[in-house]
Structures are given as structure tokens and as C-alpha cells.
Amino acid sequence: MRLLSKNIFIETMKEINIKQINTKTSFREVCASYTIPRVEMPIKGGWGFTKEDAIIIDKNDPVASQGAAFDGVGLEYSMVSKRNDLEFTYLQKDTEAYRDVNWKPIQQKVLTDKERFYDKLTIKITALPYEDWKSRKMEWKENGYKPDFDKDWFMAKTLELTQFCYRDFWFDITSFYGQ
User: Fold this and answer.
1) Torsion over CA: 104, 69, 32, 172 (sign)
2) Three-state SS for 96?
3) d(Cα 179, Cα 158) in Å, to the nearest integer?
4) Which end of the chain is less enclosed by CB atoms within 10 A, N or C?
5) Which residue, among 147, 36, 156, 35, has the nearest Cα to 85 in the 3D structure?
6) Contact status, residue 40 vs residue 63, Cβ threshold 8 Å
7) Is the bond preceding residue 129 a cis peptide, omega within 30 degrees?
8) How far apart, in whole angstroms, are the C-alpha atoms of residue 146 and residue 2?
9) Is residue 3 predicted with pLDDT exceeding 70?
10) Of residues 178, 162, 174, 164, the one with CA closest to residue 51
């Protein structure tokens, strides 16, 4: 975004061009390996890039909380955050990584295919390339406390450096849909 005048921005963000994760290790396994202590989630299947590779949410999985209401949609949103963290930060070299990764849902719809129910979630992701994030952080640390520091300019510059992309997430929600 570019600042035209105070509080008026125009969309000029550069599009993020990051490679899709390519691993034979399951999403469940990778997510568990990035938590301390190791925590498994009631999922199986793929990484959710396509319907055929959907993340299968299984409310009957032994690691699912028994007795409590199952929050499948909450789990979906948690999986979106985890995959974004992995895809944009943890599984990237610093020179290709992003920080301040944020996302918001753009569209969500339920689809059926051969007695299976899928939730397709499209999100918009915004993030700062690692080097830009590092320089913004350093500038804030050195100048942010000064009374004459132009915080509006700083925020506008940060927005100007922010990049974006759209991602689809596919979830097989058969185990809990409609219950």
C-alpha cells in the first residue's frame, strides 16, 4: 500500500511468490514436530493444497478431546495458521522467509463429492520479507521512542513493504459436518 495522504492508502502490494511445501512427511507429523511438548492433532491426509490432498479432520481420532464439544472449524483455523507458519517462516531459509504473517478469510464454502464433505477456505495472506521485517524492527527499536519520530510515516513505509498472496485450504470435514 502507498500513502497518498494521511489515512488514505492505495493498494500497491507486491505479490508473494513462495514455493508450495513439497514433502512426503504428513502435515500431522510436521505440526507435531514443531510443538514442545509434542502435541498431535486429530488430522490425517495431506497438506490441504487441493481437494485430493485435503487435511482430513477426524473427530474420532484418539488424540481428539473426548467428552468436550468438537470444534472442527476452530481446528481448521488453527491448521491454516500452522501451515502458514511452516510455509512462510519455519521451512524457509532466512533469505526467502517472511515475518508478520497475517491472514484473513476471503471465502469459505462447503462442497460434496461422493458422500464426502469438504470445506474450501480461501484466504488472503499479508507478510513482510524477512530482511524488510528485520530493518523495520531495528528502525523501531532505535527511533520508536523518540518524540519526533513520525509513526505514521513508519507505518506507511511498513505497509509499502508488505506483500500478499491468496491461498486455498481444503479440509475433509465428513467426520463432524452437520453434527
Assistant:
1) negative
2) helix
3) 44
4) C
5) 35
6) yes
7) no
8) 24
9) no
10) 174
CB proximity list for 158: less than 8 A, separation 6 or greater: 128, 136
User: Would you state the pLDDT for residue 95?
Assistant: 87
Q: Are 17 and 163 in contact (CB under 8 A)?
A: no
Return the H-helix or E-strand segment holding 138.
helix 130-143
Q: How far apart are CA 103 and CA 74, in angstroms?
A: 15
Q: Which three cell numbers stand for residue 55?
A: 487435511
Q: Does residue 10 register a pLDDT over 50?
A: no
- 160 SS3 class: helix
Contacts of 122 (CB under 8 A, 6+ apart): 105, 106, 107, 108, 166, 167, 168, 169
Q: 163 near 13, Cβ under 8 Å? A: yes
Contact 97, 132 (CB under 8 A): no
- For helices 130-143 and 151-161, give the axis angle rounded to 10 degrees: 170
End-to-end Cα spacing for the chain: 43
